Automatic annotation (TrEMBL):
It catalyses: 3',5'-cyclic UMP + H2O = UMP + H(+); 3',5'-cyclic CMP + H2O = CMP + H(+). Signal peptide: none annotated. InterPro entries: Metallo-B-lactamas (IPR001279), RibonucZ/Hydroxyglut_hydro (IPR036866). Pfam families: Anti-Pycsar_Apyc1. This is MBL fold metallo-hydrolase. The lineage of its organism: Bacteria, Bacillati, Bacillota, Bacilli, Bacillales. Residues 20-218 form the Metallo-beta-lactamase domain. Counteracts the endogenous Pycsar antiviral defense system. Phosphodiesterase that enables metal-dependent hydrolysis of host cyclic nucleotide Pycsar defense signals such as cCMP and cUMP. SMART domains: Lactamase_B. It comes from Cohnella silvisoli.
């Protein structure tokens, strides 16, 4: 089992230099897209992928930088590639995704639903679900916008990937100390206050042993000004392919490209 991650983008919702914070996870030749924001269709194209190369899609929550590219994906899969892509998402998000986002653009007669465009796989929270051979996920409800469901992702019991979330020191301590999580990709707002995201100054209060496992993503366009100001934490680089198994808490990147 060889799990790799490549970020289509590492930017915040308002970033323009960086693309939306969406990821490709590959395991043994199969590819999962984690979130499909506004910039995802062009980002995939620029990396040489078509939507048809994706084996499944997994969503964290309903914000445009995480789902804004789904209409194009759905139309291309239906009218160009003629198949329904597998769509994993929390069971609590299924109705909202259709009724409050995709229906307006996708529905052409009133009988059509999300299931006409996707092979929908609702996931229950707090238990493992197989995504691809060699890849499973547990959804962890995390706080982002009040009254808006949002999920972070625990892959293969050791790799935590935050959906957008406020700083939650107890959760991060528990993941590392109780569940032996070794790699944490975390959204990071560079400037305080961290009202709907974790901000850098909050993440810098974590114990060093946790910071050594943290890789920062979902950052603003002035990220270069913060290089060298993140303690033991590292920035995830957009488009770079990382071998997740080799990302150790000693801060060694398993870079293969
Ligand atoms: N209550 C809110 C709601 C939204 N926002 C900003 O809008 C962005 C939507 O995408 P995001 O990546 O969740 O980041 C949110 C905030 O920048 C915000 O700052 N406060
Ligand atoms: Zn976001
Ligand atoms: Zn969000």
């Amino acid at each position: 089992m060889d799990l790799k991650i490549q970020m289509l983008g590492t930017g915040s919702a308002f970033a323009k230099v960086f693309n939306n914070n969406n990821a490709l996870l590959t395991v043994d030749g199969l590819t999962l897209l984690v979130d499909c924001g506004i910039t995802a269709p062009k980002a995939l194209y620029e990396l040489g992928y078509s939507f048809n190369d994706l084996d499944a899609i997994l969503l964290t929550h309903i914000h445009a930088d995480h789902i804004g590219g789904l209409e194009e994906l759905a139309f291309q899969m239906k009218y160009i590639f003629g198949r329904k892509p597998i769509l994993f998402l929390a069971d609590t998000l299924v109705e909202t995704l259709w009724e409050h986002s995709l229906k307006g653009g996708l529905q052409q007669d009133e009988t059509e639903t999300l299931h006409d465009f996707f092979d929908v796989r609702p996931l229950s929270v707090g238990q493992p679900h197989d995504l691809l051979p060699g890849l499973h996920v547990e959804l962890i409800a995390t706080r982002h916008i009040p009254n808006k469901a949002n999920y972070s992702l625990l892959f293969n019991d050791f790799f935590f990937y935050s959906g957008d979330t406020v700083f939650d020191s107890d959760l991060l301590n528990s993941l590392v100390n109780d569940r032996d999580v070794r790699v944490i990709f975390h959204d990071c707002q560079l400037h305080p206050p961290g009202v709907v995201h974790a901000c850098l100054s909050q993440l810098l209060t974590l114990p060093k042993a946790i910071q050594e496992r943290v890789f920062l993503m979902h950052y603003g366009d002035d990220q270069p000004d913060f290089v060298g100001r993140t303690g033991p934490m590292k920035f995830v680089e957009q488009h770079r392919i990382y071998d997740v198994d080799q990302l150790t808490f000693a801060g060694q990147f398993g870079m293969i490209e």
